[in-house]
Every structure is written in structure tokens, then in C-alpha cells.
Amino acid sequence: MAGVTGKLIATGFEYEIATDIKEGGLAKFMVQPVHYFAYRFCRFIGGKVIQSAVVLLAAAILLLCLSLEGQISFGLSYILLYILALPGALVLNFVVYYALSGIAFWVTESAGLFYTLSLVIYVASGTVFPLTIFGDVLARLFSLLPFSYTVFFPVNALTGKLTVLEAAKGIGVQWLWIVVLAALSRWVWQAGVKRFVSVGG
């Protein structure tokens, strides 16, 4: 389910943003009444609708088969908590990568940097393996970062490792990080746009 969740919230638009900045495609959004953040967010969510439906359906069938065989057991309350945590995870991952995409204003060839940061986030989110494998100290450290609330937290809610109160607190932390990172991305982009230069027709 960590792999499924990671697939559901995966981005990729940061490379497109870097291309817009590098090749001047961002300029058209600066002269038209279209906010670039809103444009990217709508494209991101719109692209996830069909993909999420297919992935969740496949995951549900797999979990149902495993449950019928007695290999795993999922309560309806846990599934509900997972569904409630998923939108926050999706939006949080979006603002994380949108903020990171602003690096392209300062770094011309940012693809390699994006790839490296994505690997770090991939591990820190708990997609590869549970964060508890690092030990209590590092697990607590990861819990202070936004990345664990994109994959590790929703999966823990699904597997029953969190109480309802803990899950509710986690969802609150998700949206707190969303507000903080949205403000950070706004600051990064305001600073970056001042460096943006577009030439040609």
C-alpha cells in the first residue's frame, strides 16, 4: 500500500515547470489572467482523477482477495481514515514539489537536482520501507518533516497503527504543512520571477 500511495501522489510536473522557466514558456502566464499555481494545481488534480480511480480499484481488489484468504484484515474505520488522509497527502506532495520547482529560477540544469531530491523524499516519505526501520530517534525526526505525512502516515492509518485521535491529529498536521509550504512556495516564486527573463517572439 505504500507503493500504491506513492503512485497516487506522484508528481513529475517539476520537470515541466523547469522547462517553462528555462525556455520562456512561463512568460505567457505572466501576461494572461491565468495564475500559474492554479494552472499547475488543476492539471495535477485533473490528471490524477482517472489514474487514482484505476489504481485504487486494483488495490481494493487485491486487498479484498488477501482479506478473504485470511492473510490480512482491514476494518472499515481504517479504510475511512485512509481515504480521509489521502487528499491531504496529495495536496501536500503537490506543494512540496511546487516549492522545489522554484529552484529552476536559479539552477539552469535542474533535472539532476530534482532527481536527487526526489530520491531523498521517496525514502523520507516511507514509500521504500517503513520509517521505523531507522530506529526511534530518526523516526521521530522524520515525523517532524512533511514527507512522512504523504505516504507513511496514510498507510499507518490504513493498517490500524493509529487511533482515531492520532489520525485526526495527523490530518491536521498535513494541512498545517500545506499552508506553510504554500506560503514558502509563494515566497520562492516571487523571488524567482524577479530573475526570470524571456526573450524572443
Q: What is the β-strand count?
A: 0
User: Major sheet, described briefly?
Assistant: none
Task: Give the oligomeric state.
Answer: single chain
Question: What is the straight-line distance between the termini?
Answer: 48 Å
DSSP helix fraction: over 70%
Question: What is the general shape?
Answer: elongated
How many helices in DSSP terms?
9
- Give the class from helix and strand content and strand pairing: mainly alpha
Radius of gyration: 19 Å
Q: Would you tell me the overall average pLDDT?
A: 84
Unreliable spans are none
State which percent range the strand residues make up.
Answer: under 5%
* Order of SSEs: HHHHHHHHH
Relevant terms:
mainly alpha; 9 helices; elongated
What would you note in describing this structure?
With 201 residues, this protein is mainly α. Helices cover 71% and strands 0% of the residues. The protein is built from nine helices and no strands. The chain has helices spanning 2-9, 13-23, 27-31, 36-68, 76-101, 111-124, 136-143, 152-158, 164-193. α5 (76-101) runs parallel beside α9 (164-193). The chain starts with a helix and ends in an 8-residue tail after the last helix.
What's a concise summary of this model?
The protein is mostly helical and 201 residues long.
Write the layout of secondary structure elements.
Blueprint: H1 2-9, H2 13-23, H3 27-31, H4 36-68, H5 76-101, H6 111-124, H7 136-143, H8 152-158, H9 164-193
Helix pairs in contact: 1-4, 2-5, 5-8, 5-9
